[in-house]
Amino acid sequence: MALELSARHEWVLQSEIRNMSIECDRVGGINLSQGVCDTEVPPAVRQGAQSAIDEGINIYTRYDGLEELRKAIAAKQKIFTGLEMDPEREVIVSSGATGALYCACLALLNPGDEVIVFEPYYGYHISTLVATQAVPVYVQLHPPAWSFEFASLEKAVTSRTKAILINTPANPSGKVFSREELEHIATFASKHDLFIFTDEIYEHFLYDGYRHIPPATLPGMRERTITISGLSKTFSITGWRIGYCLCDARWAQTIGYFNDLVYVCAPAPLQMGVARGLEALGADYYESLSREYASKRDRVCRALKKAGLNPHVPQGAYYILADISGLPGKNSKERAMYLLERTGVASVPGEAFYDGDGGENLARFCFAKEDDVLEDACKRLQGL
Ligand code: PLP
Question: Quick one: which atom of ligand 1 is closest to the CA of 170?
Answer without folding.
Answer: 3
